[in-house]
């Protein structure tokens, strides 16, 4: 037997003795007051509650022993799960840096891939990065955290061979899938813009091999059909130029629907449209009906926590004592109600209190400090974005809410998307020159929000405002967790100390390690590559 906190166990007898003595003193005071009232009442009071000091002392002793955390014994836990074999392949060629979708084709593909890994918890997922070459970054695994780290690090500088070759990645995905359980269905999900530089016949042949081997292919299209340049940026996001071909001409890249359609037809697979806002959700729904193999796992646990035993003993003593005394029954009921209320209220948040008092500037400053020290996680970032929206700091609101829109929590994602749509509606009203762009973004945000909560009437109403291009003065946004008021229309200027530069610095510092990994080979961007007759984008 062992204890998590042995010193608490040593203090248990003292706690039980103090509780018993206090109960004995309280009983003596009660009997004394009864005697002052009348002799008969004093005799009756003395005959009641004789066991109270002993019962309360034993309960306090047992409860303190439970706090010490006693542990002993072992047990074997068996769990059965059903998993799917799925490999995600992400195109990291330079054409995926095109910004015809926000923020870029590659960043959108990575965001959807992260969400897909999260939504497929329990399935066996592998990862491939490909451009001119294909790299198996992870075999089939259930470790979603490791896959998230690998996806975040994907960058065109990961490989020295430019261009895009689809046939090799289809073959590698097949090989990786056949290393898994043969009972479950095999699925290959490829995120790409389809701008392949190998021959279409080779790609279709590889797709047909997938069909013959019963590998289900899901192609997720990225990018637009209009030619756009490929930006070349510094690690801090500064634009230094555009990708050029060996002749010095600016390269234009487009989504190749003909290649994607032919590949999907060859494998009898599915093509997820680039215009779909929630591509990860579409893939998740597609694979939901696929066959999964059962897998039983056994885990041996040592030193099982037994704190519930003395805690149950304390509860039984109090229950028996409560059932025999009316006054103690009322006191216990009040204690239970008070404990439940305290638990429901939780710790106080100064930012939420400022929000309820409609002091939005102070609330934003408090939330900003919480984000700076890393307190509160995604909830604190969402609170900051919503408070910034309330005070009219659109730059800070947009950055914070876009970050939370990628959260793993569906509720936070919905609220962030809802407030992003509200922000776009307000910008459309204030910026008539770019109203159509803001309204289009608002429609996209609300459609994605409704995929998370299809019956939300407020989101449907605001989507209708955006679709009809009506002025949005009546649009309202949800308050941050802990608050109860909707943010008012933006003011003319943000408060001091909440500039866009400061917000960018704070939010960027939270992802400093991620940026270092993503741009660890950025110095090679300035070097002239040898094309040798091959495209490098």
Characterization of this structure:
By secondary structure, the protein is an alpha/beta fold. It folds into three domains: 2-73 and 306-345, no CATH class; 83-296, Rossmann fold; 350-511, Alpha Horseshoe (Serine Threonine Protein Phosphatase 5, Tetratricopeptide repeat). It is 51% helix and 14% strand. The strands form five sheets. A six-stranded mixed sheet has the order 6-5-4-7-8-13, sandwiched between helices. A two-stranded antiparallel ribbon has the order 1-2. Strands 3-14 form a two-stranded antiparallel sheet. A hairpin with a 3-residue loop joins strand 5 and strand 6.
Task: Quickly list its features.
Rossmann fold; Serine Threonine Protein Phosphatase 5, Tetratricopeptide repeat; six-stranded mixed beta sheet; 51% helix
Gyration radius over CA? 31 Å
Q: Name the quaternary structure.
A: single chain
Give the name of the CATH superfamily of the largest domain: von Willebrand factor, type A domain
Would you state the CATH class of the largest domain?
Answer: Alpha Beta
Please tell me what the overall shape is. Answer: elongated
Distance between the termini: 64 Å
State the total count of DSSP E strands.
14
The secondary structure category is: alpha/beta
* Percent of residues in helices: 40-55%
Topology:
Elements: E1 2-3, H1 6-37, H2 39-47, H3 52-67, E2 70-71, E3 74-83, E4 85-91, H4 105-119, E5 124-130, E6 134-141, H5 144-152, H6 166-177, E7 186-192, H7 200-212, E8 215-221, E9 228-229, E10 231-233, E11 239-242, E12 252-253, H8 257-267, E13 270-272, H9 279-287, E14 293-302, H10 308-323, H11 326-345, H12 350-356, H13 360-372, H14 377-391, H15 394-404, H16 410-430, H17 435-452, H18 457-467, H19 500-510, H20 512-518
Parallel strand pairs: 4-5, 4-7, 7-8, 8-13
Antiparallel strand pairs: 1-2, 3-14, 5-6, 9-12, 10-11
Helix pairs in contact: 1-2, 1-3, 3-10, 4-5, 4-9, 6-7, 7-8, 10-11, 12-13, 13-14, 14-15, 14-16, 15-16, 15-19, 16-17, 16-18, 17-18
